[in-house]
Amino acid sequence: MRIFPVLFWILLKGYFQGLAALELTGPEAVSGLWGRSVSVPCQYHEGYQETPKYWCSGITWQSCSKVVETTGSEAEVTRGRVSIRDNHTLRVFTVTMENLTLEDTGIYWCGINLRSKSDFNSPVSVTVLQGESTFNPLHDTSSHRWRTSPYVVGFLVCSRSFLFNLLHMGWE
């Protein structure tokens, strides 16, 4: 009979962890071309507009090191080739990595710095590709070069936040 309280606790714990994961969502994976840039949108819920947001690098969230962090305002913060900007109205912060190198490939994390408790976080796999892209729906016919829009990246990649964005942001 002791198994039921333990099973209930495990299910309840998983339920609340799942709810916390919905507080911050981002694409599971993005890719960009070597030498170009990639932008990653990270969506959060109401109530965290003034809270600092960050982008960190590491295989696990516990071992990640912060690359760039906002102050809680909407001002863009740049550190090296990486910038972060928070839009309080849309409740989305966007991280842009410029002049991509192959060494930029790895696991990154969108994060909200809660200070008093465990931060909300969402992993993003970043892949840097060499050469020209073979597919992009935003083909620029005037120069016969491919271009990427940071606003389309979230819709082009397979993302667990797609449904969340669709329901909460609507079509623009």
Automatic annotation (TrEMBL):
Gene3D superfamilies: Immunoglobulins
Pfam families recorded: V-set
UniProt subcellular location: Membrane
Protein name, as recorded: Uncharacterized protein
Residue ranges of domain Immunoglobulin in the record: 27-129
Domain Immunoglobulin V-set: residue ranges: 37-112
Coiled coil regions in record: none
Spans traversing the lipid bilayer: none
GO cellular component terms, A-Z: plasma membrane
Principal location class: membrane
Organism annotation: Chrysemys picta bellii
Signal peptide: 1-21
A GO molecular function held by the record: transmembrane signaling receptor activity
Keywords: Disulfide bond, Membrane, Signal, Transmembrane
SUPFAM superfamilies reported in the protein's UniProt record: Immunoglobulin
